[in-house]
Amino acid sequence: MLTPLLHFLGVANFAYAIYYEFYHINIPREVSKTRHLYGGPWKYLTFINLWIQLFYFLIALLNHFMGTEAKTRPQSSLLQTLRDGLFATLAFPIGIFVGTIFWGLYAINRNLIFPTILDMYIPTYVNHMLHTTVIPIQIWELVRTFHVYPSRRKGMALTGLFCFGYLVWICFIAYAGGFWVYPIFKKLSPEQRAAFMLGCAVLGGVLYVVGEFLNSCIWAQTIEKSKLKSKAK
């Protein structure tokens, strides 16, 4: 019963954050010109991640009532297969990435990622819904729910494709719109910017491997039983 409740809270948290982003965050152009320019909220990884998380927890919640909790993929429902694949490739690595990078840069110099003036327009509790809740809720999900991971080659390829696609997107915005999405990119030289982007892409891949490793450690007995069942067949 606790796990379905967690999934419901995940849906509620991220749905409300998206709703608040659309209807209640009104930052004047003189405060943040780039926010109103090319790409709208879809230029921000935080916003994209909100949709990833909402989609994931909605699938996870529906799976309790319409899917399966099978431990081997041949017995898995479509909902479980979607849930597990989305968790492995996007929900966990991108969710942890967003929270880690945001608060890491915030601790170094918040003006690199979230200037002080934004506190007037984005309440603290909403900021935490955008950037903090994803970390504990994804870790709790990792501990409470067994996920069947895809092959590492396929899983990392999908995570890498997403990271590459987003980097291309913000570079295109810089080219077409004439501005960088995040303040930190303005302060870096071209070489530093390229190194930072590469480091972020590598971190995304590392977080995929971390999720896979932790899943295999936490659910080692379940995985072993699944292998034995497969051999018995």
From TrEMBL:
Keywords: Membrane, Transmembrane, Transmembrane helix
Keyword Membrane: yes
Localization terms from the record: Endomembrane system
Reactions catalysed: 12-octadecanoyloxy-octadecanoate + H2O = 12-hydroxyoctadecanoate + octadecanoate + H(+); 13-(9Z-octadecenoyloxy)-octadecanoate + H2O = 13-hydroxy-octadecanoate + (9Z)-octadecenoate + H(+); 9-hexadecanoyloxy-octadecanoate + H2O = 9-hydroxy-octadecanoate + hexadecanoate + H(+); 9-octadecanoyloxy-octadecanoate + H2O = 9-hydroxy-octadecanoate + octadecanoate + H(+)
A cellular component term, taken from the record's GO annotations: membrane
TM stretches of this protein: 41-65, 86-105, 155-182, 194-220
Family note: Belongs to the AIG1 family.
Name of the protein in question: Uncharacterized protein
Organism: Tigriopus californicus
